[in-house]
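agent> Task received from the user: take the single chain below, predict its 3D structure, and emit structure tokens. No templates, no multimer pairing.
agent> Plan: (1) validate residues, (2) run structure prediction, (3) serialize to tokens, (4) report one or two observations.
agent> Step 1 OK, no nonstandard residues flagged.
tool_call: predict_structure(input=
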Amino acid sequence: MSRDLRDALDVLEKEKNISKDTLLEAIEQSLIQACKNHFGKADNVHVMIDPETCDFSVYADRTVVEHVEDPALEISLVDAQKTNTNAEIGDVMKVEIQSKEFGRIATQNAKNVILQKIREEERKVLYDQYYGIEKEGQVPIVLADVVAEEKAANIDGNDYLPLSFVQEQLNSRFYYDMNEKLLLYTTALDLYEIPLDSTTYTVSGEAAEHTCPIFVLQDEVPYVSLSFMENFSNFICNVYEAPHRLQIYTENVTHQTAVIQKATAVRYQGGIKSDILEQQDAGSQVTVLEEMENWSKVETADAVIGYVENKRLEAAEDQAVEVPISYVIPEYTSIHKDYKINMAWHQVTNAAANDGVEGLLANTKAVNTISPTWFFLNDNAGNFTSIASQTYVDAMHARGIEVWALIDNFTNDVDIAQILGTTTNRKNLISQLVGTVTAMGIDGINIDFEQVPESAGNDYVQFLRELSISCRKNQIVLSVDNYVPTGYTAHYDRKEQGTVVDYVVIMGYDEHYAGSAEAGSVASIGYVQQGIENTVSAVPQEKVINAVPFYTRLWKWGESLTSEALSMSAAANYLAQYGVAASWDETTCQDYATFEADGVTYQIWLENAKSLEAKLQVMSAYQLGGIAEWKLGLETPDVWTLIENYVKNEAAIDPVIPDETAAVQNTENTGEQTDTADEQAPLEEIVTE
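)
tool_result: status=success, residues=689
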């Protein structure tokens, strides 16, 4: 070798981004191959290359013998002692190979191998750029015919998919607990728990085994074994080499194919000056992804995507790729009543308040479900306080009323994200909930977790999945309370709720609330319709329960805007006290009044039988699973006949869906609606009755 070669390698490294060390390694291998070709073997050959000068020496290990029988492996004692006077028979010596013929052959062979290596490295650099490879071990993913931004990883010879890719493309129910470094997967009846770096996992406590670690972390990014995922999703994965890459199909597709008429190059971009990705022989079949004036974007049989001149292509038949159905997702079954739910919330703040339920129910009609606020989260480990009463449960059952006990996250100061984001805490909460409910014969659980931060959205949904398993096995009704859908509550994932729980409850009130910056209705007809419409777009309508308010707000404009919550009767009495007559507002479908007294301006949008009737008409049109009411004791008796008719499908007026003009309140009266639900506090204040 020479200084010229050294300079050449330096240039290649700088201009072609080909590692000098990689080229020197290629040279070393070429010299060993030259020895094998020249001498017939190369197991005993060593090459030493000076990385600074690129000078090289080739040595052969030879055993010292008395008489040489194989010159490639042996050296005579006499010749050995010329180099080392202390040499003895049986010693192994390094003997430099200095054959002129070998030197010529080695040099030529090295040049050829180097040129090949240069081509390979240039191709690798090009492919790395094309696929966005930034470090060793990254594996490109081609999703059908699109190069994915996410990269797989090859670890110890096994391919792993990033969890985010798994969730988005293969199976959304895989969940990562970053606190306890656990990968979880839920079905209708089973919970899979997969520890980090383990081949062993459990299915509802029963041990199972896989051939390689299932779940690993790289740079704190979770990855899942490709071979493991083949058992939990339907897809086709083709594996290609040079470079190592994956092509994944998740759904059936039909490709427009073409045949290469004459050997040609597939180029990085359209144009003859663009880099060549690979060569295609005449007769090769490619998939045409996009046809342009002179060039077409194509995909080769080994999933290389590039450009070919149109004149090189000949049309062929369509080709279908069909993804086999090998994994059938276990069906989620739900408890569904053969009647409309009429669920009244009973706010119970202490054990003594349980005794008041009979009085509150005295004037009601058609109540078939009651939800007492019995359970309150009290720490971040998932423990809760219960003020449930067995006498209460027994009394309701005697009336033919089911009890769905409510649990909330706002009575005490708890970190809901910490509770939901840790598997141990979720398990503790679920175990206690189900244990308490089953022991007391309670019929259902009503989850009222409010102001769950977006960062804990996946944790919340995972909690519902896991809780639903226990509820399903124990025949406990699981219902979940939700805000009226908006962009900032999308993380509640109502679609998944609609699959795993039995009933999804819309809290169709608090359109304007205590902390609102503007006065307005608690539940205008447009707000109610929006809530129902957006919910049933994601949840089966028979699973949807719309909750209506038995309260309203009196807004006061003094030095600042304030409000107080009033029961239906208290609101009517307030107007009567000041001699104010409310008038019907077609936009909100409510009686509206404004008046001044003692230097204060008042506004009110009444919740009464008339406004409830309008809401029931909308609800009837959507054929929902039922109605809920917040809360017992705030209503006037006349509302119950309307609710009874609704529950029995005997609405007095044909159901009507309001037109689009009612979707937003009249800004003349209410001002514009605002997206500030994250500031909204749960309804805890004392309602004036």
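agent> Step 4: summary for the user.
Confidence is low (pLDDT under 50) at residues 659-686.
agent> Done.
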